[in-house]
Amino acid sequence: MEWSFLVYFSTIVLPILIFIFYTRKPHQNRLPPGPTGWPLFGNIFQLGTSPHKTIAGLKHEYGPIVLLKMGSVKTMVILSADIADDFFKNHDLSFIDRRIFDANRSKNYYKGSLALAPYGVYWRVMRRICTVEMFVNKRINETASVRRKCVDNMLLWIEKEANSKEGMKNGIQVALYIFLASFNMIGNLVMSRDLVDPESKEGSDFFNIMKRMMALGGSPNISDLFPWLRWLDLQGLRRKMDRDLGKALDITTKFMKERIEEHKSGEQKRKDFLDVLLEFEGSKNEPAKLSELEINIFILEMFLAGSETSSTSIEWALTELLRNPETMIKSGE
Question: Which GO terms describe its molecular function (predicted)?
Fold first, then answer.
């Protein structure tokens, strides 16, 4: 069945699509120069094994602004610092939005994401909240003792596993413990509490979900090169992201509902970032309240960004230290 579909597609449908693409009238817009690409595939196969070097070399032939076609998607490349400076200073609003990949469209994730949301009222509101309520010295300094506690707990977890029979036999899952410690640091900043521990099934499940989501988000996707194939989801990446993002949102929803119940019961705790999001009331031309989905996605994004970056950097440092301790110590890393 699959082979018959491929034969049908390559002998009948593919030639028709190529004919349609290359017999359309050219756009009247003035476009930058660039190398002629392959039919349908554009310049994908011309970039070689070192795309960054290939693209940099195009400046000598086509100038500081080059147009490439990645599949059916036009991509403009700026190869001059001066022109890039002009773009982002004088034309920033025209180029401020990020391109949304198909995996990030799952459950409208990009609409609630500070990193991916289109420039507008919502993005400005969330940026202001972060600037005023989170990324300030006072808030960061208040969490110094919490961060120290999380690191101490991580070291105890590692020591405990190192002394266990299973740890001696299979090694230590350093990445897991770093992730859980980072997760708890963010949990204390956002929700004023530790959220997981190594023996927590929910913590392990969340760890695995996050790993899969980050892998799915970074996987090359045919749907991003050929948007007209998006509805087919040929690699199944969108379906997998729907599944994992749904599970992650279920976990963050549980945390949010627990906080709402605490408010109803009158339990008094120090105000944290979750309270800020729940109590937000917009002024003129701003949303009156943040929706449950927006809050959940925003909180999830903080855990994704904070846990992934810290885990990657610390795990790299520990790995390098184990491989070559003398070099790491001498270099001061």
Answer: heme binding; iron ion binding; monooxygenase activity; oxidoreductase activity, acting on paired donors, with incorporation or reduction of molecular oxygen
